[in-house]
Design brief:
56% helix; binds ligand PTJ; 259 residues; 6-stranded parallel sheet
């Protein structure tokens, strides 16, 4: 990997880019994953490269949903593995559940490499290498699922993917939690809880919330979920982008006048 000096103003973004490129070199991230990373970088820039209040609300509701679930499941694709393997392992450990590898551009070799990476990072259980069921309504490899994992889950976390599996999982009666920097994506609009944030920041924050809320009685968790309104949160996320851009323009104008 290219050495990025910590003093570089775009250190975090460049490091993430390197991680995805390394995932491609190691063969667990798809080449298409590079394009997804570019889309993500663009939206992260627009949201201000920080966890906004709308995302904080979604993260809290997502943690409550995962704690209330009888059978929660966490999905991992090639970009998630490259960017946040360790963080996903920590989240799975906090919930005491396995992770499940699920790929759009599926090859058995990539599935095995991602499963090995997760085990190497300390995952206690990894599903997805031997899928035994299919999510109805999907005609691609992402339909493959495992009983005891995503197939039977009542709540599923799907970071960084496009919309049709989100809809198909919701049609099975599951509550879907998305992590997607694009608040206008089909996934974000169809999920029960959409975390509009970079996975690099969102997953550690989600694990922290899971730990924090785990002492609460179920009745309090139910209140958090009942008070959550995903449509409102997505509108807020779009407003945060607009406010951020207007602040940027104002600052730029001020600079030009003082130069
Ligand atoms: O590993 P595979 O074969 O399952 O393929 C995975 C990718 C990501 C290539 C595949 O799911 C794909 O093509 O996804 P899309 O359609 O590009 O959608 C990815 C979404 O994730 C986009 O809305 C991006 O804005 C968003 N995204 C990209 N990077 C990040 C992100 N969201 C949060 N954090 C990121 N770092």
């Amino acid at each position: 990997m290219t050495e990025i000096p910590k003093s570089h103003p775009r250190y975090a973004s460049l490091l993430a880019r390197e991680r995805v490129a390394e995932g491609v070199r190691q063969g667990y991230t798809s080449t298409q994953g590079l394009i997804a990373q570019g889309r993500g970088e663009c939206f992260d820039y627009l949201i201000g490269e920080k966890t906004n209040p709308s995302a904080e609300k979604a993260i809290r509701a997502a943690a409550a949903l995962l704690l209330l679930a009888e059978r929660p499941a966490l999905s991992v694709n090639g970009n998630v593995a490259a960017l946040a393997a360790e963080e996903m392992v920590a989240l799975a450990a906090a919930l005491a559940i396995p992770l499940e590898v699920n790929l759009f551009h599926r090859s058995e070799e990539r599935v095995r490499k991602i499963a090995d990476l997760l085990r190497q990072k300390g995952a206690a259980g990894v599903l997805g290498e031997k899928p035994d069921s299919v999510v109805p309504g999907l005609e691609h490899a992402r339909a493959l699922a495992t009983r005891g994992g995503i197939y039977d889950a009542d709540v599923v976390l799907i970071p960084l993917e496009d919309g049709d599996r989100c809809e198909a999982l919701a049609a099975m009666g599951k509550k879907v939690i998305a992590i997607d920097l694009n608040p206008l994506s089909r996934t974000a609009r169809k999920a029960a809880v959409s975390i509009v944030d970079n996975i690099l920041r969102a997953v550690p924050a989600l694990t922290e919330q899971v730990r924090k809320l785990s002492d609460l009685p179920r009745s309090d968790l139910l209140i958090i979920v009942a008070q959550y309104d995903n449509e409102k949160v997505l509108r807020q996320a779009v407003q945060e982008i607009s406010d951020h851009l207007q602040r940027q323009f104002r600052e730029e104008n001020c600079r030009q006048h003082t130069d």
